[in-house]
Amino acid sequence: MVSDPILRLCDFSFELGGKAILKEISLSVEKGEYLSIIGPNGAGKSTLLKCVNGIYRKGKGRVEIKGKSLSAYPPRDLAKLISYVPQGDGSSVPFTVKEFVLMARYPHLSPFSSVSRGDREATFAALELTGTSEFADRYLDTLSGGERQKVLIAAALAQGAEILLLDEPTAFLDPKHEEEIYRILARINRESGSTIISVTHNINHATLLSRRILALKRGSIAFYGPSEGIIKEGILEEIFERSFRFLSHPQTGRPFVVPEWSL
């Protein structure tokens, strides 16, 4: 028996400032799935995450979470279902890592309750899973970009939501930290069963981690299907309007893609 998708969009469109940003988007995401979203700059990827998270409202069509309209969820109830990691902006945050991650438990707290043992356990479990326990007593401002990004993911995990939305989680990171972030996300998806929807520009990591890939171009769906389907001649060229080379890994034989440069 196939269960209902945890997230569904039906003919969803969204305008911002009178300009169409998303156009008739229809898709479904299964519980525990890892979906990567790719596409050129300005394609509507970040906007789509913000619409799913309820940051942007009043789109046309329908967004459903667990079979229920997004608009029917009070903010606190929605926060128990969806956590969101935006693009890192380097903002100053005057809290220690432990304090910051603990604050992510807000959907589970009442205005008059104190932090419970369960809240602390969820916080330390998130720190442990993301490899940030060693930073627990340091202030966020003292961490590197890669370390801060892991803490943001830890906070989203501590929030206890079923769906984790990430907007370019490895942007501006060096290859070492980029690899660490993707390994953490794969582990979260595998061990906690969280549904992950991640915007990325790394096509190879998208095909490695995801069962399906969504590609947007000018606000419309350009590709939506099995991850291996994106690495076929003509598809990426159409999406990004440039040439690519398709190669096989010398050790694993797994296909991967690199841009074709001509200077």
In short:
By secondary structure, the chain is α/β, with parallel strands linked by helices. It contains eight helices and twelve strands.
Write the layout of secondary structure elements.
Blueprint: E1 7-16, E2 19-29, E3 34-38, H1 45-52, E4 60-65, E5 68-69, H2 75-79, E6 82-85, H3 97-103, H4 117-129, H5 145-158, E7 163-167, H6 175-191, E8 195-199, H7 203-209, E9 212-217, E10 220-226, H8 235-240, E11 244-248, E12 255-259
Parallel strand pairs: 3-8, 3-9, 6-7, 7-8
Antiparallel strand pairs: 1-2, 1-4, 4-5, 9-10, 11-12
Descriptors:
263 residues; alpha/beta; Rossmann fold; 2 domains; 6-stranded mixed sheet; 4-stranded antiparallel sheet; 8 helices; 12 strands; globular
What do you see in this structure?
The model has no long low-confidence stretch (mean pLDDT about 90). The longest helix has 17 residues, at about 175-190. The protein is of the alpha/beta class and about 260 residues long. The strands form three sheets. Strands 6-7-8-3-9-10 form a six-stranded mixed β-sheet, with helices on both faces. The protein has a four-stranded antiparallel β-sheet with strand order 2-1-4-5, with helices on one face. Strands 11-12 form a two-stranded antiparallel sheet. It is built from eight helices and twelve strands.
Distance between the termini: 54 Å
- CATH structural fold name of the largest domain: Rossmann fold
Q: What is the gyration radius calculated from CA atoms?
A: 19 Å
CATH architecture of the largest domain: 3-Layer(aba) Sandwich
